[in-house]
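Quick one before lunch.
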Amino acid sequence: MSVYKNPTWYKDAVFYELYIRAFKDGSGDGHGDLRGLLDRLDYLQELGVDCVWLLPMYPSPLFDDGYDVADYRNIHEDFGTLEDFKAIVDGVHERGMCIIVDIVLNHTSDQHPWFIESRQSKDSPKRDWYVWSETDQRYQDARIIFLDTEVSNWTYDELTGEYYWHRFYSQQPDLNYDNPEVQQEMLDIVDFWMEMGIDGFRVDAVPYLFERENTNCENLPETHDYVKRLRAHVEAKWPGRILLAEANQWPHDVREYFGDADEFHMAFHFPLMPRLFMSLKQRSRRSIVDIMNRTPDIPPMAQWCIFLRNHDELTLEMVTEEERQFMWEQYAPEPRMRLNLGIRRRLAPLLNNDRRRIELLNAMLFTLPGSPIIYYGDEIGMGDDIWRDDRNGVRTPMQWDTSKNAGFSSADELYEAMIDDRIFGFQGVNVAQQQADPESLWHKVVHMLTVRKQYRAFGRGSFEFELPENDGVLGYWRVYAHEDAPEIEPERFLVLVNLTDELQTVTLDLGAHQGKTPVDVLTSESWPEITAEPYTATLAPYEYVWLKLP
Ligand code: GLC
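Model of the alpha-D-glucopyranose complex:
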């Protein structure tokens, strides 16, 4: 089933996040590029993903791996050209997939010509495109995000003797959204890429667009107004294209970014992610149930994006102080594993490279409400390197095979060295080996995606917990009634996961489904028929089942 050209494609889509520089080097210079990616689009199709999300591909000093944009209308020379990009868009579409790219609205690189001009003098025509101040005492209630590097959100600029505002690195000055020219320019940039045929944007760092005194400068009404303007613009000119919000906030704050179906189509569910990991260490579903119960309903056409890992640290911003300490103790015992308010590790090492737990979290990722996102390399269980700076240790080259540089590049020097590790090195972890082995993680992921795609319940169905007394087991219903064809029986799934490393027995009250025989759609195994009696089942350590009730 191809999602491309279905107007609500994003509700059924499985996303795949990749960093061009890390994926495949087509030119032999040690940097992944668009030609390399073009060569690997078949791979993405084989894996079974529906939408590719590209990290920023714009010209940039790459101080923050491209989230420091120096030109919004071009491609970084290491990655290729606009023609190469067009070939990617076409290639993706030919394969029935979609493509979204990152757009960085909040800030630019300090090397962007706008900022260079802005800092020239106080009366430069671009002065007001950024946020300047005579003092560094304004907006003191705004937190610092890159805590390990930045001491203030203001940086003093010698040239004109004023401070400029930045929520991230000082090399990333914030644009001034009070300036109508900035607002308009960004809409024009949106058009530029939409014209190239992309299917939407992952919008970076949304909550911080505006600043106001005596607020924390996040999620301000002015920011929502601008998002509404952006959505209306996209809706009018580019219907069917989507906007996905990166707003690392609590569920009730993120809810606002769906608006009345007039802001974002999609938003990441940040608070759910750490709780999936937490549940394994707590051997209890408690934290998952709690956060899902605190997640408000969203408009019918809106969709959550859910994920296990991404290109950043595993963020612990949306947990309590106590939960953060717990997560750090459990998953980041060494100081080098921590970064800012998070953990810079990949999925497989976080889970002790335990296949059962890796599969279990994936089985939840593919069945909880929302569209799942796979971070490149996690489908084969790639490792990380906590000794590299910043987040570089989770952005290493993709491991394709056992040839030189894991088949990533023919160059002698790479943008970032391969993972060199007995367990996670490319001799042991690579795509080719796993494709050849029907028992591999890769094949397991492909299988789960194939099964997921046969149903609409996982992308569009309702969600309800099934909570047996034993809280080491999490259960939930996903039910989809075909609105357009009421004569077709609704799809009804009961997902059960054992969050512990021991056998768990649960007793379920399935009285409403008497006479039915559940079938695990992952294995085709039939379960005992449901009778009037309580339904008792035993789950193996870390077992997961996707039971379909006819
Ligand atoms: C987002 C990106 C992160 C980047 C930051 C600043 O949080 O995910 O990688 O550093 O924005 O642009």
